[in-house]
Every structure is written in C-alpha cells, then in structure tokens.
Amino acid sequence: MGRISRISRRGFTLGAVLALTAATAADAAASGPVRPLRRELRGMWLATVANRDWPSRAGLSAAEQRAELIAHLDTAVRRRLNAVIFQIRPTADALWPSDHEPWSAVLTGTQGQDPGWDPLGTAVAEAHARGMELHAWCNPYRIANHTDPSRLIPTHPARLHPEWVVPYGGKLYYNPGLPEVRRFVVDAMLDAVEKYPVDAVHFDDYFYPYPVSGQTFDDDAAYATYGGDFPDRAAWRRDNIDRLIREMAARIRKTRPRTRFGISPFGVWRNKATDPKGSDTTAGVQTYDDLHADTRKWVRERWIDYVVPQVYWNIGFAAADYAKLVPWWSRVVRGTGVRLYIGEALYKAGDPAQPAAWQDPAELSRHLTLADRYPEVRGHVFFSAKEVGQDRNGAMARVVADHYS
Fold first, then answer.
1. How many domains, in total, are found in the chain?
2. Does the pLDDT at position 334 exceed 50?
3. Would residue 296 count as lying in a domain?
4. pTM score, two decimals?
C-alpha cells in the first residue's frame, strides 16, 4: 500500500475534501512525488455489546457518553481512518429512539430507559463532520447474553412473542426459521435507515449461532412447518439466511438507495477438504456448514455491496493462513463488483495469550503489504475501537506509519 487514501466520496463534506486536498498538497510538497490516488476504506468497528468499546460502562451521564463517543471518532481521525462501523443493535435493542425495540441497557444499565440523547444521530452527524463514513452495525437474531426472558422488559418483542425465541449456548435468539421473525428483524433494522443517512448497514458473523458442544438449536417445530421442500435441515436453514440477506438488501435499496449493505463473515466459508471451491484451510468452523451462512453465494449473486471477511489469523498460521485466505477472497469477489475489505484482528496484537507472531508490532503492517498485491482488496477494517486507541504494542501506529501516511 504505502499510498494516499482511496478516499470514499460518501460522507465527505466539501470542507473536509478541501482540507484533505490542501493537506495532501502540503505533504506532497514536503516529501516529493505522490503515488496515484486509489479509493480505499480504512475502518474500525466500534462495539457496544457488553460495553466492549463504548460506553465504557453503563450508567454514564448523557454528556459523558457523548464525550466518549466523540473521543473514539477523534481517535479514528488521528489514525487516518475514514469509516466507523458502529454497533447500533447489539442484542435486539436500539441505540436510537426505535419504533420497534427498547433502548439498549448498555447506555443506562436499564433496558428501555431513555438515555436523554440520540447516540446514532450524534454518531452519524459527527462522523460525517469529520469526513468519515458511518456504517450501522446490526446483529439480526441475538436477543440476550443470558437465557432468562423475565430479565427483558415486559414490552420487549421477545416477551410478547415467546414462540419466536430459542435458548441456546447460554443466550437467547430469535428463530431464523420463522417468516414472522424475519419480517420483524428487517423492519427493526430498517427503522434506523429510514431515520438516518447512514452510509451502510452492516451485519457481522452471527447468523445461526456458533455450535456449542452437546447442545441442539431447537427449531424442530419451524422445520416441520416450513422445511418440507428441502433435502435436509441444513439446506433449509441456509435458505432462511439467504432470504434474510436478499430481503434486507432489497429493503435498504428501496428505503435509501445510496446506503450500501455489507457483511463481515467468519473468514472461512468452507475448507477445501470439504468443498473443492473452499480455501486451503483446516478451520474448525465453516460458515456454510456451521452458521448456515453461504457467504460466497451472497457475493457471487451480488446481493451485498461489500464483504469484510474476518481474516483474524497471522501470516503462516497453519489452520487458516492470512496469506492463503486473502487471495481466496480476492478470487471470490473478482468480476462481481462487490467490494472486498479485510477484517484485521488488531485486538490480538500484543496480547500475551496469542501466538508469537502477534507480539511483533510489524505483523499487521505485513498484512496490508501482502493484501496490496491483490487489486480486489479495497481496504481494511480493524477490530476494534478500544485497541485502535490503546494500541497495546504499537501495531496500529506501525500500520499508520507504513500505509496511511
């Protein structure tokens, strides 16, 4: 890479563009010839589930919450990023005044309690004022990180429709096999698109839940009702998720045509040993088989506008090598028009529990250098905002110095 940003036109004010142009000219005068401009997304995820990144804890005042949010956006600017993927619906709740779901407990500590301000509206306005895109990150099916429906407020849709709910792996989920669930979650997520000029809607890797040993996701009744035309339950489940993706894409384009739709799947679609079209990996989880998410199909069918595979492994990692997955995903998107951004595991950098490669501050920079060999790669997204700011071992600073100067 090592080039000027492939700046996206979305979300940039005229003043921001002029300021960036002036700064670029000044840099060029100081450092000599500049490489040709190439569009690039430089993003970070801003996670709110369980107060991972923001707010730092539930119950802060509105002013404190807003100040922390602004600080994350300002950190992104300092790191020369141009997009923030902001988690607005972490557990069937909302970080905006939703017509469908309660205020999230991550704000006040009490589900349904008005925090006294509009986090999503503020995030959109403040990101755009800084020349950044704001992608609205939603989790479609997760209801709660526990299995006790009585802990949800009485008016919660999951309390009003207990037949929609499946407990699994210590959490509560909406059942993807019910058409009424699909209609509801699409409506709930579209509420944000209708109300705010978000640059994209973003789903992460959670569709059917990750497998938990010794447990069964109990969708027997739904399968008996709706699964008769499919060869097996897995094919029916994949069709359920396919329908969600197609319907969400169509509704976004109808509601706000300039808003894009992106998915950030687990980095392995299928292993080559399972399917010749798969990647040269031996990962224990395959999205097609375990999460019932045919992410390759969504790209090939052009149902989505961009894909951000979570290639959260180091170069040379035996089971899932970054150096093998990036070219595989590049081939998947080739000729489709779907943009490819690579999800980067900044959270692993400098973590003593991670392999030795992640103790080297240059590991992530090498990722971007390798990815630059593939013209299909149009940017990178870093997980997540807390680590972008803390930068435990200097890996993010190294990325900025080597690639975002």
1. 1
2. yes
3. yes
4. 0.90
